[in-house]
Design a protein that fits this description.
Number of helices: 16
Shape: globular
Distance between the termini: 28 Å
Radius of gyration: 21 Å
Structural class: mainly alpha
Oligomer: single chain
């Protein structure tokens, strides 16, 4: 048996969840390194205005990544449930369907994204001092969306079988390529923001190609057979039913962050640069939380397909407990060394001061995110994806829209703006907990 794959249906849970979640968390960190490398390179070799230009696009990039990750999560759940129920033929069909969907989604959103750049920048009220550089970065970045989509779906296919190491290795290689090309394009060729964007696109292509080759060479249920590949309507419907709400849930966070980004832009380039640097740090904490949340999704998905509800519930609680332990350890380290970490991005004292404020407001209360991701992940594993998406839409977006439009104009400080993050998390977590217990009591057998 291939040792890359984890048996989620038998034996102890805690060690298997760690083996699954930590490579997944590191994969998320590697994905963020692609952005971090851009920000660090520009901050050190070009200046804070170029750094602010990329920072302006972070929320937009997060929106796109969230959509692809959500859609691919639908593939993860559907394939995992088929594996757990030993429906091998259906699992094969889901793999092929996922691959076709990845290509279609990547091309579609690339075209739509390019068409919407101008109106989005108008909405964000991007300062003229950074607008040209920000647009250059985003337009080049969007060209890499098909490769990004393929990588996320390919990674989801591997994870459905319990393999989180292969996607991690592919992304580690891509991150190395990105760092080398950043230095070459910016320091040697002086291409500025266009250079770091081009490096990111090439890195995304590299990661997608590596996983594509591995799927062709894989054995068993997740092997990709190009000659027999076609779209199965039933599997496509199920993938979209689960994946689209999950994608929307992630996009809601990013959409609300776009509104906050517009408010940050009104505070000037220092606030924009500080947010760009702090975001790169804080998102790595979230990668840990998200890794264990996706562990809950996949373990629950396989065991729900196998009809073992007791093990599903245990997997949910074990995932959340382990997430809290690893996340809190990382948070303490970040808060203790916040100034030094932010100084790696840019040495401007005001940028560092504002960045520290953001980290305390967002990193310190991350335990609330453990609850949100844990219960959302478990619900998606059961195939219940619309509920957490709607809750997130109403609670997160509603709270943040109210805060930015009603509270921030009266107290227009950076700290006031950052306070909306923990407030919106707490409200959302309370509603999600209630929704989880409501649905678990009324579970129906897997399809």
């Amino acid at each position: 048996m291939n040792t890359r794959y984890i048996d989620m249906l038998h034996g102890s849970l805690w060690n298997k969840i760690i083996l699954f979640a930590l490579p997944l968390a590191l994969t998320g960190v590697m994905q963020q390194l692609l952005n971090a490398a851009d920000v660090v390179t520009l901050g050190q070799f070009v200046g804070k205005h170029a750094m602010a230009a990329v920072g302006n696009n972070i929320s937009l990039v997060g929106l796109i990544v969230s959509l692809f990750m959500g859609l691919s999560l639908g593939a993860n759940v559907v394939i995992a449930q088929n594996i757990g129920a030993k429906r091998i033929d259906r699992a094969h069909l889901a793999v092929g369907t996922s691959f076709v969907l990845a290509g279609a989604a990547g091309i579609f959103f690339c075209v739509v994204g390019e068409a919407l750049v101008a109106p989005i920048f108008y909405f964000l009220e991007v300062p003229e001092s950074v607008e040209g550089m920000a647009e250059t970065y985003l337009r080049i970045f969007l060209l890499g969306l098909p490769a990004m989509s393929f990588y996320n779906f390919e990674a989801a296919i591997f994870r459905s079988k319990g393999d989180t190491r292969t996607p991690l290795i592919a992304l580690a290689v891509a991150s190395g390529v990105n760092i080398v090309l950043n230095l070459l394009f910016v320091v040697q060729f002086d291409w500025g923001v266009g250079g770091v964007a081009a490096a990111t696109v090439i890195a995304n292509v590299v990661s997608a190609i590596i996983l594509f080759r591995e799927l062709l060479r894989s054995d068993g249920v997740i092997k990709l057979n190009l000659n027999a590949m076609h779209v199965d309507a039933a599997e496509l419907k199920e993938i979209v039913r689960i994946g689209l709400p999950a994608g929307i849930q992630g996009m809601v966070f990013s959409l609300s962050n776009l509104l906050i980004q517009a408010a940050i832009n009104s505070l000037g380039a220092d606030a924009m640069a500080a947010s760009a640097a702090a975001f790169i740090v804080e998102i790595n904490v979230f990668c840990v939380v998200n890794g264990f949340g996706q562990a809950a999704t996949t373990f629950v998905g396989q065991n729900y397909g196998a009809g073992n509800l007791r093990r599903c519930k245990r997997a949910t609680w074990v995932s959340m407990g382990l997430s809290a332990i690893f996340m809190q350890t990382l948070c303490v380290f970040i808060l203790l060394f916040a100034e030094k970490i932010l100084g790696l991005f840019n040495g401007d004292p005001e940028v560092i001061r504002l960045g520290v404020i953001r980290l305390w407001y967002i990193v310190a209360p991350e335990l609330v995110n453990v609850v949100m991701e844990g219960f959302s992940g478990a619900l998606r594993g059961y195939g219940i994806s619309l509920t957490p998406a709607v809750i997130t839409l109403v609670c997160v977006c509603g709270t943040r829209f109210f805060w930015v439009l009603a509270v921030f104009p009266k107290i227009s400080t950076y700290a006031t703006l950052m306070a909306v993050y923990p407030i919106s998390w707490v409200i959302t977590a309370i509603v999600l907990v209630a929704a989880y217990f409501y649905h678990v009591k009324r579970l129906k057998p897997a399809r």
